[in-house]
Structure formats: structure tokens, C-alpha cells
């Protein structure tokens, strides 16, 4: 392994860790400001009605979801729609971490039914826009990935 490979892989790991942290911060902030749509069907409905308000689409799976054909078809359709409407997309593994992040905020809610965290949309309403560094960091990462012809970048969220 050359020095460039060692330094390059180390900086890539740091970049991925930074973006993962930014995504976590963004999801928590968006949920607090009621700027999250959670669920495959809920997300599809919102994108059909108001695609301009969506700034990020997070598609989350774990290994056990890889064989779910219906979910993969939904993901393919959502990705195509996002590409057509210039919406940033991230594929994420680490469903348990997503649950930890988003369930903490909803513990006061009355719903005992688990939420479908396979698709999460972050919206940015024009009246009171969501402004945070985490959104800029995640958006920059998505843009950099597209420049490298990686249209749907992948992140791994680690349990804590």
C-alpha cells in the first residue's frame, strides 16, 4: 500500500464520519422543526404534491432488507423521482441508529406503532427555512458524489 492510498483512505473515512455526524444532526434538527416526513408511502405522497420543498431523501436499509423486492422497487422509483427533481439522495445503512435518533424525539407521542424509517424526507419550507450547517455539509457531500458519478452515495450510521 502506498502512502497516497493510506492517507487517501484515512481522509475518506474521516469525511464519511463527518458526513454521518452531519446527517444525524440534520435529522434531529429537522424533526424538532417538523421538517421530516417518515415512511415510503408518506414520502411518495409529499413528493407528488410538493417536490420543491424536499431538500434530501434518505433511503435506509440493513442487510435483512436487501432481499425485500417491493422495497427495492420503491427505492428505485423514489431515486428516479429525486434525480428528475434535483433532490439530494443518500442511501444509509444503520436502521437501529436511525431509530435511536428519531425515536428519542417522539417518546412523548402516543403512537406505539413503529415507524417506517426506510424513507425519510427532509423538507425546507419557504416560510421558515431550515438553516443549519449540517444541511450544507450533507448537500455538499451529495454534490461532490455526483461530480464523481456516484448519484446515490452510501453512508453507514454506527450504533452508539
From TrEMBL:
Pfam families: Ribosomal_L7Ae (PF01248). InterPro entries: GADD45, Ribosomal_eL30-like_sf, Ribosomal_eL8/eL30/eS12/Gad45. Residues 22-105 form the Ribosomal protein eL8/eL30/eS12/Gadd45 domain. It comes from the Eukaryota. GO terms for biological process: regulation of cell cycle. One of its GO terms (cellular component) is cytoplasm. Belongs to the GADD45 family. This is Growth arrest and DNA-damage-inducible, beta a.
